[in-house]
Amino acid sequence: MRKSAMHKRIAVITLCLLLAPFIFTTNAMAATAQEIDARVDATLKIFRAQVPGADQYLSVAKGVLVFPSVFRAGVGIGGEYGEGAMRINGKTVEYWSTASASIGFTFGAQSKSLILIFLDEAELIKFRNSEGWRAGIDGSVAFVEWGKAENVDTINTKDPILGFAFGNKGLMANIALEGSKFILLNKE
């Protein structure tokens, strides 16, 4: 019993130490609307250059949620956070954050870009009207994976929300968002 209580204390202390910079420097880390928009533009440019068929997806999207950088860090217990913009018809309409926590094999830090493409109007409306949309609970995101030589076929896509995650080395495989929470931000 004592070891279990000690492990819990260590886990709580570790989580507090990992999240302290995020909690106490939120205002310092928070990007302005203009900064987010500039980063979203750059991320979409990379997306178009690296992903065959990206323009086809973007042309049929009802909405596109872009997180230029989702930072993940942890030692046993981890967390991730990022800020992005919802674009409809190529224009930013809202700003969102994404956050999640995990317990398990987590060590180190990494950053990824995340793009969610809403192909279904009803799912987009449900997402935008939520007070904290949770992936895997309020809706699911199907991540697109393919080899370098393949092209994306949006005509045969049945999933209402598609996800793309990429880092410095291109598209990432085996990405899941279950448990990630998305919250509307006020960036006036």
Question: What report would you give on this structure?
Answer:
The chain has about 190 residues and is an alpha+beta fold. The chain has one domain (about 30-185). It has five helices and seven strands. The chain has helices at about 1-25, 25-30, 35-50, 55-60, 120-130; strands spanning about 65-90, 90-120, 135, 140-145, 160-165, 170, 180-185. Strands 1, 2, 3, 4, 5, 6 and 7 form a seven-stranded mixed sheet that branches.
Question: How would you summarize what this structure contains?
Answer:
With 188 residues, the protein is of the alpha+beta class. It is 32% helix and 38% strand.
Number of domains: 1
Q: What distance lies between the first and last C-alpha atoms, to the nearest angstrom?
A: 51 Å
- Total beta strands: 7
Number of helices: 5
Helix-strand category = alpha+beta
What percent strand?
A: 35-45%
The whole-angstrom Rg is 17 Å
Mean of residue pLDDT values: 75
Shape: globular
Helix content: 25-40%
Unreliable parts: 21-28, 170-174
Q: What is the succession of H and E elements? A: HHHHEEHEEEEE
Q: Please describe the biggest sheet, giving its number of strands, its sense, and whether it closes into a barrel.
A: 7 strands, mixed
Write the layout of secondary structure elements.
Blueprint: H1 2-24, H2 26-29, H3 33-50, H4 54-60, E1 63-88, E2 91-118, H5 121-128, E3 133-134, E4 142-143, E5 161-167, E6 170-171, E7 181-185
Parallel strand pairs: 4-5
Antiparallel strand pairs: 1-2, 2-5, 2-7, 3-7, 5-6
